[in-house]
Amino acid sequence: NILASSFYNTIISKENAMCEQHVLYQKIFEMLHNPNPIMRFLGLYDLLLVLVSKENDIQQKYVHNYLGKNKKRYEPYITFVKNKEGKSEDTLTQLRNEIAHCEQTNDFEKYRTVGSRISPAVIRILLCVLNDVICEKSKGI
Predict the structure, then answer these.
(1) Would 2 disulfide with which of 32, 43, 75, 141, CB 3.0-4.6 Å?
(2) Measured at the alpha carbon of residue 141, what is the angle toward residues 45 and 122, in degrees to the nearest 5?
(3) Which uninterrupted H or E stretch holds 69?
(4) Separation of alpha carbons 113 and 6, rounded Å
(5) Each residue of 17-49: pLDDT tens digit?
């Protein structure tokens, strides 16, 4: 589990929009209470997806584009790799897609293997990206 102190240190030690977006930060904190690392990751990733997408156009390409525009900020934690189709894919989206593939194929062993790769460091960088997006939205960027 992610400790409350770790969550707050990740967010509070950086610029944040806690006052303007208290409910959103509370939602993130509650997602972190889920004991399953896959569910924590999916909840946070899906929130990021909604925040960076256009209102009626929720697509992973917006996560990829945001991370691509801010590549230097998140290196070396988020990298870009080629997927099976030869397209560039960020490591967060790649992980999300691997989970979805496990669900589609009902491959429980692969699901567990993918879940074991969701470390506190992965959650931490996802929290940092979420915080940056929330701050930018609060400033109207």
Answers:
(1) 32
(2) 25
(3) helix 60-69
(4) 25
(5) 776 778 998 999 899 999 999 999 999 999 999
